């Protein structure tokens, strides 16, 4: 194969990669706050609605895990608040999915933002009670949950 053939083969491959990337919706996350993390939650969705649905379901899954993990730390004052807020976040995310189904985008966004607030309420409780060291795992997990929630809010902004 001559050099020209190699070049054109590379170009075909590049265009194919870009095209397949779009078909799989990975470009949906290009302007998200945390693009790589965003792409990892889409599960091949190619339109904003299914992308957001998968991203919210992923966030619900991670919030459930965060709750279980926080319960293993032991009894800290702040963790009572965190457990409650993880439950609230799951409720708010389920409500968001329901509003998405009804195409009520404004209510979807309000409830997504409420989930975001739930995570930071947990952070505040940990910090106010001076339990940062003992509950450091919760703060780290919350950081991830807040990034996932920010990506959901971004994907919600793509809906019409
Ligand atoms: C969810 O959205 C509805 C409709 O906008 C609103 O009434 C409700 O307060 C929201 N829930 C939260 C937790 O913000």
Automatic annotation (TrEMBL):
SMART domains: PMEI. Residues 1-25 form the signal peptide. Keywords: Signal. GO terms for molecular function: enzyme inhibitor activity. Pfam families: PMEI (PF04043). Residues 20-155 form the Pectinesterase inhibitor domain. Transmembrane segments: none annotated. NCBIfam families: PME_inhib. Belongs to the PMEI family. This is Pectinesterase inhibitor-like. The gene is LOC103488986.
């Amino acid at each position: 194969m001559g050099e020209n053939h190699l070049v054109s083969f590379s170009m075909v491959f590049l265009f194919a990669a870009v095209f397949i990337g779009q078909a799989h919706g990975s470009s949906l996350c290009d302007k998200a706050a945390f693009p790589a993390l965003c792409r990892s939650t889409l599960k091949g969705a190619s339109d904003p609605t299914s992308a957001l649905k998968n991203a919210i379901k992923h966030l619900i899954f991670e919030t459930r895990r965060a709750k279980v993990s926080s319960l293993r730390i032991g009894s800290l004052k702040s963790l009572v608040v965190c457990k409650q807020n993880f439950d609230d976040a799951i409720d708010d995310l389920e409500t968001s999915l329901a509003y998405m189904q009804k195409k009520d985008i404004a209510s979807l966004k309000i409830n997504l933002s409420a989930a975001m607030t739930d995570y930071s309420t947990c952070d505040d409780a940990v910090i106010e009670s001076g339990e940062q060291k003992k509950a450091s795992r919760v703060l780290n997990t919350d950081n991830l949950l807040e990034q996932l929630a920010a990506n959901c809010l971004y994907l919600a902004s793509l809906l019409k």
